[in-house]
Specification:
By secondary structure, this protein is mainly α. It contains three helices and no strands. It is rod-shaped.
Length: about 100
């Protein structure tokens, strides 16, 4: 044991009563409370921004779903009205893709 440890042990109940541990624990709690107080607004801001971004993405996904449905309906209508044109466009696209794939 060094002199400092012996002095602390001889000077009273600092270690035996747990007063030092209580002080350290109290300081740790205060430090944690300080950190929480400083970090909480930032975390809330990030949460809010993430929620807004999620809502915006859901709105865009819904809009794209509606646009896709409209486009498919338009394509079906066009194919029903002009089936020979649709077949010719399909054949031309197939020929072009096969030539690009070579």
């Amino acid at each position: 044991m060094n002199d400092r440890t012996q002095t602390l042990l001889q000077d009273g109940d600092a270690f035996t009563s747990g007063a030092a541990v209580d002080r350290v624990a109290q300081r740790a709690h205060e430090a944690i409370d300080t950190v929480v107080a400083k970090v909480k607004p930032a975390v809330e801001g990030v949460h809010s921004a993430a929620s807004q971004a999620a809502e915006a993405l859901h709105a865009k996904a819904d809009a794209l779903g509606a646009w896709e449905g409209e486009w498919l309906d338009s394509a079906r209508t066009h194919i029903r009205e002009q089936p020979l044109t649709a077949i010719a466009v399909g054949l031309l696209a197939g020929v072009l893709l096969s030539r690009l794939a070579r």
